[in-house]
Prior knowledge:
Chain A has about 120 residues and is α+β, with helices and mostly antiparallel strands. Chain A has three helices and six strands; from the N terminus they run E-H-H-E-E-E-E-H-E.
Amino acid sequence: MRFMLLIKANEDSEAGVMPSEELLSEMGKFNQSLIDAGVMLAGDGLQASSKGARVYFSGDERKVTDGPFTETKELVAGFWIIEAKSLDEAIEWTKRVPNPTGEEGQIEIRQVFEESDFQ
Amino acid sequence: MTPSSDTSRAIDAVWRIESARLIAGLTRIVRDVGLAEELAQDALVAALEQWPESGVPDNPGAWLMATARNRAIDLVRRDAMRQRKHEELGRELETQPDTASDPSAAAEDEVGDDLLGLVFMTCHPVLSTEARAALTLRLVGGLTTAEIARAFLVPEPTVGQRISRAKRTLSEARVPFEVPAGPELRDRLPSVLEVVYLIFNEGYAATAGDDWMRPALCQDALRLGRILAGLMPREPEVHGLVALMEIQASRTRARTGPRGEAVLLFDQDRARWDQLLIRRGLTALARAELLSGALGPYTLQAAIAACHARARTPEDTDWERIVALYDALAQLTPSPVIELNRAVALSMADGPAAGLELVDQLTGEPSLRAYHLLPSVRGDLLAKLGRTNEARAEFERAAGLTGNRRERELLLRRAAACTN
Lengths: 119, 420
């Protein structure tokens, strides 16, 4: 099963503050542990919402709004896609994401639709 | 405090993540995979008893390892092992760093070596391929006996016995726990890669309606392959095998039609090919090609698969390149099946007559006498040349030769479509 791990944003990520040496190093090791276990499928950081935009849909209407957006805690700052046997395994991997500063944060886990789900 | 059912699911997940390295590290200490697995499972039992109360520890892998090592010490003290092993074990325990108190002491290199040592043991050529597959899935893949049985459509007791017997064989043959190097690695690597590919093919052969553990074997094989690529990053054929599996797996969604029927490569809806896996496959292939002098068989097969993966439509396929790759493959691992595939590629590059000429040379091949793809390919080429009666006869012959219901239906449909 595939799971997407969505790192929620914080003030620093929205302000475009670069991660500390320590965080980069720990994240690097964590990414390597996913690769070593054969479960990493994809992963990337997302730039601050100030560099992004939203497209609003209603019928045929399309309305574009430029970032930044205000609800920081709900924004996505990065993601992984991993292969795991169960949600529990995805949770276990997620718990291992480093948090050297000890700050508050949230990572949301969502299961990716696969062909068999549509049958 | 987490409720106990949540904890036991968390423990299950921890086991899947940690068990291979745990068993590998213990095998280094006790030099016997059977005993190592027992010790690991004893540690798991302890976790199931203690973690519901104390919570899952911050470093569950280190906790399990420390617990298992303590159990090993208990066994030594109770003199449950023969004198020789007692001394060996005593020596090992004295010189092992205490990883529980200082996790960083277990250098990643050592852990990697242990895991590689375990893989070369579970894939040792003294075991049959089925035994190697079962043992590897169990000790390295973290699957239960029941899961392996469901995946291979074999009764659970049979798998259980296969695994026990395999452990005994390794013990009696005194297979050493070590990572082969240099020419020995080159000799032993194929027996590892063939196990991984066997597991993949078992999953790839699964059809709609099968137990979901069967197609899941493709993911297990991919995971094992990727782990090996991380452990042996300079071995091109490991990357070649991973590339081949990633690209083949990318077609899973397109291979079955709405009524569960088989869909041939040429007819597949390429929009349903998984681009994530294709990208990963092409990356792995590039790594393999960079590391290779001459390309090995898995890398060649991956390169052929990549030609298809890169083509937006069948007409865009670089058939000349595929013919050249089959030429190289035929020189490395000559076989009538490869010749047949080469003939198909040649027919796409140079026209059906050119392909038919090659195929006709194969009709006398004894090993292909019962191979349904020979008349199937011949029928396809004859149909393209307008020789419809001959084509129909070939498709009907092919339908009679295949044991797979969906393939038979496909071939009979093709036969029926041959009208003047």
